[in-house]
Automatic annotation (TrEMBL):
Residue ranges annotated for the HD-GYP domain, each copy included: 203-398
PROSITE patterns assigned to the protein according to its UniProt record, in alphabetical order: HD_GYP
Source species of the chain: Blautia pseudococcoides
CDD domains according to UniProt: HDc
Name of this chain's protein: HD-GYP domain-containing protein
Length: 434
C-alpha cells in the first residue's frame, strides 16, 4: 500500500473496524477476545512493568489471540473445548500476526498461549513468556466464567494448576489485579475496545498495517481469493490514472477498492469456494456481503470512499445490486471499481474455472459495455493499456503471493515441530477446573 492511511483509518476508528469485521465471522471469538484483553489489561496495570506502548500492543494481541481460528468448524470445536489439538490456530495466528500486523515483536506469545507453563520452551524470552501466560490465564478464566457462575471455585481450580499450567507469579498478579480493579465484575459490562484501552494511540503506519491485516484475513480464507482485493485495487488505480483522474479521486478509489469485499468475511467458505454456479439461495447469501461491508464500515469511513466500496456490483442499466442504481447515480470512481472487480474475477482462478485470457476478458467486458451494464470509457481505457496494467498487477501481487505461500510453508513446518513432536506437550483444554 503506497498511499497515506491516516486520512481514512486512525486510532479512533481502526479498532472498531477490526472488531466489526471479525465479528461477522463469529461473535463468540470477538467478545471472548475483548474480555481476555480486559483481564490482561488489568494484570498489566497492576504489574506496572511495561511501557504504555507495550501494554497497548499486548492488549491488542490479547484481543486478537484467536485470529488463527476464523474457520467456523474450528471455532465450534474451540468454544466447546472438544479438541485437544490447539496448535493449528495458535501457529496460524502467530504467523498471521507476525507477518501481517504491527504486533511482530509480541506475536510469538499467541503461538504458546495454550501451552502449560511447565512445557514452555526454556528459550522463550521472559516478556513473551509473560504475555503468553497472561493471555492463557485470561482465556481460561473467561471460558470458566462462561460455563460457571461461581468465582470462589474458580480460585480453587486455579490453585490446583499453580506452577503447572500457570507460573505462580502470573496467578499472584491476577489476584492482585482482581483485588485492585474487581476484574471479574467488570467482565460483565458490555464494552468496546476503546473502553478497555481508552488511550490507544496508533501511528498512521500501524493503522495501515492493521487495515492490511483485515484485508488478508478475508482474502487468505481461500487460495482463489488471495490476491483479489489487491488486484482490484491496482487495476482501479491504473485505469483511473490512464483516464486522467485527479490524485484525490485516485486516493478515494484506492481505499474504496481496498475495502470493497470486507463483508466477505461473513460469507461461508463453502459458498465462496463452491465449484460451479451457485443456487439462488446461495447467491442470495453471497450478495449479502455488500450489506455486511456497509455494517462493518459503520459510518466511520469517508462517505465517498464508502460508496465506492458498496457500489461495485451496481450496473449502469439498474440490473446490479444491492440497490439497483442506474447510470446517473454512479460516479466515475464507482464505475471504475465495478469494472476492475470484474476484470480481477475474470483474470483470477476460481474453484470452478481457470483464469481467463486477455482476449476473453476483453471480449466479456466489451459485451457488457455494449449491453449498457458497465462504463464503456473505463473498458476502453483498460483495453488500450491492458498489458501495462497487467504488469503492474503482477508486481503488486508477487509479494502477497510470496507471503501467502511462505505462511503456508512455515505453518506446515511448525505444525510438524509441535503437533507431532513427542517431546513437546500442551495442555490446551485443561479440564481440571471443570
Amino acid at each position: 500500500m503506497d498511499m497515506e492511511a491516516k486520512a481514512v483509518v486512525n486510532s479512533n476508528n481502526i479498532s472498531g473496524l477490526i472488531e466489526r469485521t471479525l465479528n461477522y465471522v463469529d461473535p463468540r471469538l470477538v467478545d471472548h477476545g475483548k474480555r481476555v484483553a480486559s483481564l490482561v489489561y488489568g494484570m498489566l496495570e497492576a504489574q506496572k512493568k511495561y511501557s504504555a506502548k507495550d501494554m497497548q500492543d499486548i492488549c491488542i494481541l490479547a484481543m486478537l489471540h484467536d485470529i488463527g481460528a476464523y474457520k467456523t468448524e474450528e471455532i465450534n470445536r474451540m468454544t466447546q473445548f472438544e479438541s485437544e489439538d490447539i496448535w493449528e490456530h495458535s501457529i496460524y495466528g502467530y504467523l498471521f500476526l507476525a507477518n501481517l500486523s504491527p504486533l511482530k515483536e509480541w506475536a510469538r506469545a499467541v503461538m504458546f498461549h495454550h501451552v502449560a507453563a511447565v512445557h514452555l520452551p526454556d528459550s522463550l524470552e521472559e516478556p513473551i513468556r509473560e504475555a503468553a501466560q497472561m493471555i492463557s490465564l485470561a482465556d481460561r478464566i473467561d471460558i470458566y466464567l462462561q460455563e460457571n457462575t461461581d468465582p470462589p471455585n474458580l480460585f480453587v481450580s486455579l490453585e490446583k494448576v499453580r506452577d503447572t499450567k500457570f507460573d505462580s507469579h502470573i496467578l499472584d498478579l491476577f489476584y492482585e489485579a482482581e483485588r485492585q480493579f474487581s476484574l471479574l465484575a467488570c467482565l460483565e459490562e458490555e464494552k468496546d475496545f476503546h473502553k478497555i484501552l481508552p488511550n490507544v494511540q496508533l501511528s498512521g503506519k500501524e493503522c495501515e498495517e492493521y487495515l492490511r491485516m483485515m484485508i488478508f484475513a478475508i482474502d487468505f480464507r481461500s487460495q482463489h481469493t488471495v490476491t483479489h482485493t489487491i488486484t482490484t485495487t491496482r487495476i482501479s488505480c491504473c485505469a483511473a490514472s490512464h483516464m486522467g483522474l485527479s490524485d484525490a479521486q485516485i486516493h478515494n478509489i484506492f481505499y474504496g477498492a481496498l475495502l470493497h469485499d470486507l463483508g466477505k468475511i461473513g460469507i461461508p467458505v463453502e459458498i465462496l469456494e463452491y465449484p460451479g454456479k451457485l443456487s439462488s439461495q446461495a447467491m442470495a447469501v453471497m450478495r449479502t456481503h455488500v450489506d455486511l461491508t456497509e455494517k462493518i464500515l459503520g459510518g466511520t469511513i469517508d462517505e465517498e470512499i464508502t460508496k465506492i466500496a458498496l457500489r461495485h456490483h451496481e450496473k449502469l442499466d439498474g440490473s446490479g445490486y444491492p440497490r439497483g442504481l442506474t447510470r446517473d447515480a454512479l460516479t466515475i470512481e464507482e464505475r471504475i471499481v465495478a469494472v476492475s472487480d470484474i476484470v480481477s474475477a475474470l483474470l483470477g482462478t476460481r474453484s470452478y474455472k481457470e483464469a481467463f485470457s486477455k482476449e476473453k476478458t476483453l471480449s466479456i467486458l466489451e459485451e457488457q459495455a455494449g449491453e449498457g451494464k458497465i462504463d464503456s470509457d473505463v473498458v476502453a481505457a483498460l483495453k488500450a493499456n491492458f498489458d501495462t496494467v497487467l504488469e503492474e498487477v503482477e508486481d503488486s501481487c508477487r509479494p502477497i503471493l510470496d507471503t501467502y505461500y511462505g505462511l503456508r510453508k512455515e505453518y506446515q513446518y511448525l505444525l510438524g515441530k509441535y503437533l507431532y513432536s513427542s517431546t513437546e506437550a500442551a495442555d490446551p483444554a485443561d479440564r481440571s477446573h471443570k
